Amino acid sequence: MNTRNRTPSKYICYGLYLYLYLYFSGLSLRKTSERLSYCIKRNHVTIWNWIQKYQPKIIKTKQRRICEFIVDETLLKVGSEYTWLWVAIDAKSKEILSLSISKERNMFVAQRFLSNIVRDYGKHVSSFNRW
Predict the structure, then answer these.
(1) Do residue 77 and residue 108 come from a single domain?
(2) If you average pLDDT over every residue of the chain, what do you get?
(3) Number of structural domains, the chain?
(4) Percentage of the chain with pLDDT > 90?
(5) Does the global pTM surpass 0.85?
């Protein structure tokens, strides 16, 4: 009788956490596999398969129209470099609509970010938050 060696869900969640939430710190699939090997041994291809299986469903943005969204940017230090994180959030559902990372903060980067949102979600009324 052939039985599959199924991975317990707590290890799948931990592997996904290591890759997806720590992605910006530079954790690759192989590094995720190495870190996960302290608990259970799985290779990087298995983790890639988990990501493909459990990734959030993509909403078809072309059919969806947002009336109002909030745009904000913040400066992050990644390693020894500074980068800007741009985010657009739906004002009603509080859902993240778009994320962008740039090395600069200027009018051209802001215009490109807003143009992409308008392209995907239609014309809008926007609120700019400064914290």
Answers:
(1) yes
(2) 77
(3) 2
(4) 1
(5) no
Mean pLDDT along residues 103-108: 89
* 69 in the same domain as 118: yes
- How many Cα atoms sit within 13 Å of 13 on the Cβ side? 3
Please report whether residue 2 resides in a domain.
no
Q: Which two tokens mark 44? A: 């990087």
Residue 54 reports pLDDT greater than 70: yes
CA distance 37 to 31: 10
Assigned token pair, 69: 């969204």
Residue 79 covered by a domain: yes
46: its two tokens = 């298995």
Q: Which domain does 95 fall in, by range?
A: 61-128
